[in-house]
Amino acid sequence: MTRSLLRLATLLLALAALLLAIAFGRPANPIDLAEAVANGSPGDTISLPPGTYELSAPLELKRDMALVGAGPGATVIQAAPGWTPDLAGLPQQENPQAYLLKLIKTNNVRIANLTLSGPALHGAIYADNANGVELSNLRIKDFQWSGVRTFRMNRLKVHDCQFIDAGGEVEWTGGALFTSYTRNSEFWNNRIQKSDHLDRNFYGFKGQGGESNRFHHNDVQVNFSFEFPFENETGIEIDHNRFDGVISIPKFGGGPVLRNKTSYHIHHNWLRRSYALEWARNSAEIDHNLFDFDPSQNNGNLISNFSDEPAAGPTNFHNNLIKNPGRGIFWTDGVYNRFRFYNNVVKAEGGEQTQGLFGFNPNTNFDTIVIRDNIFEITGPTPRPLMRNDASYRATVQNNTLTNVADAERFANRATGATRGLIEPLRFTVGVDDAYQVEGWTVQPVGTARS
Asked: Do 374 and 341 form a contact (C-beta atoms < 8 A)?
């Protein structure tokens, strides 16, 4: 018998044993899955029929291999009860042996149609320097640190996955998907959520460093939807998402000032927390979003910069709708120059906040601060001022509609004849499978997303 035929026979025997175990109601033998992978060749597809497969050590796939189940409700890979790796060393020191699946310098692997679970493990998938990996239609549930942890990836695709309680049980909060130094990658149609009864917090998309990555059509229902602090990123696009939590991307001094490209482009999202964006970040563009805040949870500034290190900017913030802007729209502890706020509509309909909407550091170069062509409507119980301190009145404020704005008389607000408010109406879909239709200030379900 040739070597290739021997491998094929081994695979078929392993799968037949699994099918018999399932048919007679017995648990699958964990060694079958491990042996099927170990005896397979690069490029093989390991197809797993319905059943529960237990592992007591990481499963290491080979290059170009595919691991495909019958669906996340049918095929489950889980950690054996005795597999309880130590959590010591996190977050500074990762342990690749504490994940169900491990990919190190293993390119073009595809993992699909499975549930992955391990309440005592760090996470489901660990990958380092593995290019062209695709993760799809996975349910990643109950892990200690981070559901998926990656380093130095190129052309990573993660889509149509569900992350449930996929981390947050260690002192330093991990992420459902925690990526470091990822390039040319795409993340879409993923749902990230936490069970209401669990007292834990984990972040949605978490990472450091990145270039030319897109995050779109995701539904993230945790406190920090997106956190990429302290590193330089370029060409990051965040669009068509429902985010219930913060987008946190602060960088010392705002990071590099880029020519002809953005660090972050945040557009066409439905953003629901008044503490929406944590800054400073230079070379950023924020446009065509619905900032939709509950007036009963109005303790945040839409943009907050807690650093006192000067940042050069720019941030171009335009063509957005902002409902109930909490404590304010923009507040910075340190200098942030070249903040341009134009063609937005702001409606403060409720809540008890009375602070000014903008608060700039007194040492700001106010020649670079522009607030123009906007519509501000304060319809709450009391008028609100535009500015939070006297120095901020040195900004350029022109051609705005100011309704019930307490300090309107302190601005020349010169009319220019330019369009005020949105250049065109907001109409777009967000979330998994385009589940929500944004139509101006209104959001309606437009279909049934995957349960």
From this structure: yes
Across the range 293-301, mean pLDDT stands at 88
Closest CA to 188 of 112, 149, 135, 144: 135
Peptide bond into 16 cis (omega under 30): no
In whole angstroms, what is the distance from residue 243 CA to residue 274 CA?
11
Nearest in space to 377 (alpha carbons), one of 358, 351, 397, 403: 403
In angstroms, rounded to a whole number, what is the distance separating the alpha carbons of residues 314 and 369?
10
Contacts of 170 (CB under 8 A, 6+ apart): 87, 90, 91, 144, 145
Q: How many Å is the Cα radius of gyration of the chain?
A: 25
77 contacts 51 by C-beta, under 8 angstroms: no
What is the pLDDT averaged over residues 18-31?
43
Please tell me the least confidently modeled range out of 47-56, 86-95, 134-143.
Answer: 86-95
DSSP state of 319: S
Q: Are 283 and 312 in contact (CB under 8 A)?
A: no
Contacts of 92 (CB under 8 A, 6+ apart): none
How far is the C-alpha of 298 from the C-alpha of 305, rounded, in Å?
A: 17
In sequence order, the 6+-apart residues with CB closer than 8 A to the CB of 445 are: 435, 436, 437
Q: What is the pTM of this model?
A: 0.91
Q: Going by DSSP bridges, is the β-strand pair 315-318/339-342 parallel, antiparallel, or unpaired? A: parallel
Strand partners, 123: 99
Q: Report how far apart, in Å, the C-alpha atoms of 99 and of each of 35, 80, 137, 142, 194 are.
A: 18, 12, 19, 12, 20
* pLDDT in the model for residue 388: 96
pLDDT at 449 over 90: no
Q: What mean pLDDT value characterizes the chain?
A: 91
Distance (Å, rounded) from C-alpha 266 to C-alpha 260?
A: 16
| CA distances (Å), origin 156, targets 44, 113, 336 | 20, 17, 34
Residue partners of 387: CB distance under 8 A and separation at least 6:
356, 357, 358, 359, 393, 395, 407, 410
Nearest-10 Cα torsion for 200, 205, 206, 210:
180
**Distance, CA of 305 to CA of 249 (rounded, Å):** 10
Longest dimension (CA), the chain: 92
CA separation for the pair 169, 349 (Å, rounded): 38
Q: Are 408 and 373 in contact (CB under 8 A)?
A: no
